[in-house]
Amino acid sequence: MKGKAEIVVGAQWGDEGKGRIVDVMARNADAVVRYQGGANAGHTVMTDDEKYIFHLLPSGMLYPGKTCVVGNGVVVDPEQLIKELRDLQEKGKDRARLVISKAAHVVMPYHKAIDTAEEKFRGRGHQIGTTQRGIGPCYVDKVSRIGIRIEDLANPQVLREKLQLNLEIKNLVLSRVYGETPISFDEIYDKALSWGSDLAPYMGDSSLVIHEVLGKGGRVLFEGAQGTLLDVDHGTYPYVTSSHPVSGGACIGAGIGPTRIDKVIGVAKAYCTRVGEGPFPTEETGEAGNTLRERGYEYGATTGRPRRCGWLDMVALRHSIRINDMHGIALTKLDVLQGMKEIKICYAYELNGKEFQHFPTEIATLAKVRPCYKSLRGWEEDIGDCKTFEDLPQVVREYIETIEEIGGVPVIIIGVGPKREQTILRF
Ligand code: GDP
Ligand code: IMO
Ligand code: MG
User: pTM for the complete prediction?
Assistant: First the structure.
């Protein structure tokens, strides 16, 4: 029996509302899998009575009987993961079966210290604005083949040897390059052993688990973190994260072949936001941006930083639709636009008097382009209770149809508020 594999991917610069879309789709899924990133992510799920923010655990954890997988492509901060699990247990909400890939890499305290030191070293004008969760340095170690994997936490001898080697290098870097305090072996080793015993019951093989579910005809959801424009290859390099949030990342980060993927859904906000540094062509630094920030409560779910806000950028979104081979868009936060007199959509960029519609790969070009806008009427009606597409006022439907027309793919899910039931499904 052939199951169904569907990827939910961030179509912009992260924080598009992936968590809430995964939560809604997880109702009819058997497994939910995180495939990249780490605790830099903050995925919000609002049930009727409570708000949950998932950093490492998949956003399907609230459903009894589902399988939740932390894939090999994730970089795991064990302290954060154990805390998240404990918080859910205390609320009686750890209802899913959890599997953490033995091959996932471990974010160590020195990764976080180096992340912070590197940002400080780069100084103003060169900073990336990372979440300082140790993500970049951990992926660097993975690729340079000295990283510590989840399976190593359960093997005291291997852990000792790997940690000794790593600390020898990291402490030189921390003290001699960055002038920071070295980190003690004993402190980390004991901590890492205790993480190992806490996590041992969950350690497994993500690819095996996923294929078991698919083999029984089950439905597997792959939950991307960050967004396409933060992808290390396809995003606005170097202002990106160090992993592959794009749909292709799910194949590598979970252990599934590309021909097993049935559907890719890209989550996009009805406008754009970005946290951290880097070009953002449709950014509004004035009143419109402030209104979006306040109405959309655009403050980071992980770091609390105010998010930069601007209009929907269809040039960037088309790039994302192509890179991910997106079947449809989940458009979130449409309700936030209520009360805006004018709503703008960027359909092209302009540079040196020339209009073009492709997303440039060179960061220097992207920093110079000017957005070309199509202006649409706003609306005053509250759409938070709309249940179907037809319930939406005509002017709102026109906004969605314009996105479909420029994007060339259908909008198949619409978010009209942060709660579970404030979701319009069009399939
Ligand atoms: P993620 O990282 O992509 O999962 O997104 P975040 O959780 O970081 O940020 C999305 C924020 O928008 C959260 O506070 C959600 O509760 C909220 N949100 C998601 N969808 C909607 C929506 O349709 N309307 C409104 N008003 N808020 C939404
Ligand atoms: P979710 O999954 C928004 C941004 C950081 C910074 C850049 C690199 O909640 O959408 P990193 O710590 O990854 O090395 O930082 O990426 N960033 C995010 N922005 N949402 C996220 O996750 C992000 N994760 C990282 O702000 O600009
Ligand atoms: Mg987020």
Answer: 0.97
DSSP 313-365: EHHHHHHHHHHHT-SEEEEE-GGGGTT-SEEEEEEEEEETTEEE-SPPS-HHH
pLDDT digits (tens, 9 = 90+) for 158-192: 999 999 999 999 999 999 999 999 999 999 999 99
**Which candidate, 138, 167, 153, 417, places its Cα nearest to that of 297?**
417
**Candidate from 43, 74, 131, 140 with most ligand 2 atoms within 8 A of CB, to mutate:** 131
Same domain assignment for residues 312 and 416: yes
The CA distance from 273 to 46, in Å, is: 20
Q: In this structure, are 174 and 313 located in the same domain?
A: no
Find the 13 Cα to ligand 2 centroid distance in Å. Answer: 8
- Domain residues for the domain of 285 are 269-425
**Measured CA angle at 333 (ends 302, 399), to 5 deg:** 145
Which tokens belong to 9? 């991917």
Query: Which residues, other chains included, contact 353 with Cβ-Cβ below 8 Å and sequence gap of 6+?
Result: none
User: Residue 337's domain is classified under what CATH number?
Assistant: 3.90.170.10
Asked whether residue 246 falls in the same domain as residue 335, the answer is no
Q: How many CB atoms are located within 10 Å of the residue 204 CB? A: 17
- Which pLDDT tens digit goes with each residue over 242-301? 999 999 999 999 999 999 999 999 999 999 999 999 999 999 999 999 999 999 999 987
Is residue 361 over pLDDT 80? yes
Among 281, 278, 282, 274, which Cα is nearest to 308's? 274
Cα–Cα distance for residue pair 241/189, rounded to 1 Å? 28
Domain of 114: which CATH number? 1.10.300.10
Q: 250 and 275 share a domain?
A: no
Tell me the ligand closest to 16's alpha carbon. 1
Please say if the pLDDT value at position 1 is more than 90: no
Asked if residue 387 and residue 351 are part of one domain, the reply reads yes
Q: Does residue 415 share a domain with residue 336?
A: yes
Domain count, the chain: 3
Do 298 and 415 belong to one domain? yes
Question: Hey, how many other C-beta atoms are within 10 angstroms of the C-beta on 385?
Answer: 10
Whether residue 192 sits in one domain with residue 135:
yes
Q: Is the CB of 15 under 6 A from ligand 1?
A: yes
